[in-house]
Amino acid sequence: LSSGSVSSCTVGVENPINLDKKVKLASEDESAYTDGISSAYPNGTAFDYKIEVSNDAESPSKKEVTLVDQMPSGMLPVDVTLMVDGMESDIEWEDFVKLTADDMAGKKYTATVSDYTATVENVDGAVKFTWSLGVIGNTVTITYQAKLVDDTITSGVLNTYTNTVTIGDLSDEVTVKGGDNSGKLVINKQIL
Questions:
Q1: In degrees rounded to 5, what are phi and psi of residue 45?
Q2: What phi, psi does 137 have (nearest 5°)?
Q3: pLDDT tens-digit map of 33-70
Q4: Among candidates 180, 164, 143, 182, which has minimal Cα distance to 26?
Q5: DSSP summary character for residue 180
Q6: Which residues are CB-neighbours of 172 under 8 A, at least 6 positions away?
Q7: Are 75 and 61 spatial neighbours (Cβ–Cβ below 8 Å)?
Q8: Which residues pair with 132 in a beta bridge?
Q9: Closest alpha carbon to 36 in 77, 72, 76, 80
């Protein structure tokens, strides 16, 4: 040891938590998950969403993880039961997104998705899931189905629906499109 000298070194460390969100049409197989779907689909179309949260095996994070999934307005969960104050609710998702702050005051809304219980909020007419996952061991996978339920989809209109998931500063998003091409005129030109 030498006396009287001090040196310092700064080492950059990557975040050991990885966040990935994918989407596919509900009718497609597992291999069809992608970062977004560019074709337009009509109201009622169902999509499968998959969120994977993983922790680095060699240098894992010891921090507790809170996962937030903000669905876009115009999309609602399918086959996910809404709970109010720990009891199964008869409130449909279509009605939940119309509730006001006064309607929701003093009540705790939750839903269990892929065996993980999330608190549920209505944020400007859109569903927001928040999962407190604790310290992640290896990988947590959450899957659910959502469908387009947008009354603004009209003939010839194309809407974009971006679903964003976050853990602190980490975020990932996927986009699908809804619309109806029935009002568009398509002209095919054939050269002979």
A1: -65, 135
A2: -80, -85
A3: 888 887 888 888 999 999 999 999 888 899 999 999 99
A4: 143
A5: B
A6: 19, 20, 21, 164, 165
A7: no
A8: 66
A9: 72
Query: Sign of dihedral through CA atoms 79, 141, 39, 162?
Result: positive
Tokens 């894992």 label which residue?
A: 60
| Measured distance CA(145)–CA(49) in Å, rounded | 6
C-alpha distance from residue 164 to each of 29, 72, 142, 181 (Å) = 23, 8, 14, 26
Closest CA to 175 of 52, 41, 43: 41
Rounded to whole angstroms, how far apart are CA atoms 173 and 70?
9
Q: Express each pLDDT in 131-149 by its tens digit.
A: 999 999 889 999 999 999 9
CA distance 127 to 76: 7
What is the separation, in whole angstroms, between the first and last Cα of the chain?
Answer: 88
Tell me if residue 57 falls in helix, strand or coil.
coil
Question: Which residue, 127, 135, 192, is CA-closest to 165?
Answer: 127
What the block records as the tokens of 59 is 């240098």
